[in-house]
């Protein structure tokens, strides 16, 4: 039979008694991306997936993992705008005015 200190050490190492060992696992705080774009109907792509329309993301930011993300904002009749963002936890606001394609 194992002695109590040895048993506690084994439990801590296995993660079964994490709270009893003084540690806490918490999920990292998310990054939130708010996009304010002109035109407000511009589409916002994050890591090649459609995240939504700019006017919606202006009031309801996209929830992401902190770290590097590729963001593309596009709208018909405008040049697309690409960004490489290293998002920290918390809210990041991006303001973009897309340039119209000349006639």
Given the C-alpha coordinates, what overall shape results?
A: elongated
Stretches where pLDDT is under 50 for at least 5 consecutive residues are 4-20
- Report the sheet-strand fraction: 35-45%
Neighbour order of strands in the largest sheet: 3-2-5-6
Into which percent range does the helicity of residues fall?
Answer: 10-25%
**Main beta sheet, described?**
4 strands, antiparallel
Q: What is the count of DSSP helices, taking H or I runs of 4+ residues?
A: 2
CA gyration radius, whole angstroms: 22 Å
CATH class of the domain at 28-97: Mainly Beta
The oligomerization state is single chain
Structure description:
By secondary structure, this protein is mainly β. It has a domain at 28-97: Sandwich (Immunoglobulin-like), CATH 2.60.40. 15% of the residues lie in helices and 42% in strands. The chain has 2 helices and 7 strands; from the N terminus they run αβββαββββ. It has helices at 4-14, 54-57; strands at 31-38, 43-46, 49-53, 62-64, 67-74, 81-87, 90-97. The protein has a 4-stranded antiparallel beta sheet with strand order 3-2-5-6. A 3-stranded mixed beta sheet has the order 4-1-7. Strand 2 and strand 3 form a beta hairpin. The chain is elongated and about 60 Å long. It starts with a helix and ends in a 6-residue tail after the last strand. 13% of the residues are buried. Mean pLDDT is 85; it is low at 4-20.
